[in-house]
Amino acid sequence: MTSRPYPDDLPRHVAVIMDGNGRWAEARGLSRSDGHRAGVDAVRRVVRAADDLGIPWLTLYAFSSENWNRPKAEVDTLMRLPEEYFEQELPEAIERGTRILTIGRRDRLPPHTRATVEDAVARTREGRGMNLVFGLSYGGRGELVEAARRMLRDQEMGRLNPEALDEKTFAAYLDEPEMPDVDLLIRTGGESRVSNFLLWKIAYAEILFSERMWPEFDRAHLEAALGDFRNRERRYGLTSAQVRSGE
Ligand code: FPP
Asked: Quick check: CB of 229 below 6 Å from ligand 1?
């Protein structure tokens, strides 16, 4: 059963669909690549802010499994972003004790991207600060299918009894078993959809759709989103009266 953290001031897990880089760039006569680079700057700002604010888990949707279908030049740019980001940010991440993780199909990343990401993950493994997760070649349905595949393998090996399968056991087969449920999902860029992101973990997430394009998003917008979250009443299927009385 899902626990009830109400009243809960600070989300334990914030997830972000960073949309709007392309439109932000086009509106300024810039290239989409410029938009993605500005998106990396927003990542730098928001990661720092989230850590300063004490958010334990931050998950960023950097590249979806569907993004492979974009023009090759754009995919190539997107695949270089982790290098640009970690080259500058890894020393500070290590200093802050940030633990870098990824979800998604690392095996589909080009070798240079994969090597960069794996280096960042390995060098921050002992971090006990914020968990910073990048969705890379990630899709929620794909993650569920992979979980089912791992489960079937375990069953075949006699390590899993189908009768004992419950939500907790299932969740342990997802890409990052330690990741808690998402409390707050933010999507920038003015669209109101979840785009195959963290389908299992957003079951009870509060969702905030922002009109702002991702390259404009900063600490003040994150703080405003947290303020909005604080005012939400999380009910988990209960009545408002039950929640208020703490029954
Ligand atoms: C969607 O906006 C955004 C992406 C496909 C890429 C998001 C990536 C970043 C913000 C940077 C990631 C950073 C690291 C460190 C890996 P869009 O370009 O589709 O925007 P549009 O809808 O306006 O065209």
From this structure: no
Mean pLDDT of the chain: 95
What's the 62 CA to ligand 1 centre distance in angstroms? 6
Residues 100-157: tens digit of each pLDDT: 999 999 999 999 999 999 999 999 999 999 999 999 999 999 999 999 999 999 999 9
Full residue range of the structural domain in which residue 59 is found: 13-139+182-245
In degrees rounded to 5, what are phi and psi of residue 135? Answer: -85, 115
Which residues are CB-neighbours of 154 under 8 A, at least 6 positions away?
160
- Asked if residue 146 belongs to a domain, the reply is no
Residue 236 placed within a domain: yes
**Cα(157) to centroid of ligand 1, in Å?**
41
Residue 110: give its domain's CATH number.
3.40.1180.10
pTM, full prediction: 0.94
> Is 218 considered catalytic here?
no
What is the CA(209)–ligand 1 centre distance, in A?
16
In a domain, 78, yes or no: yes
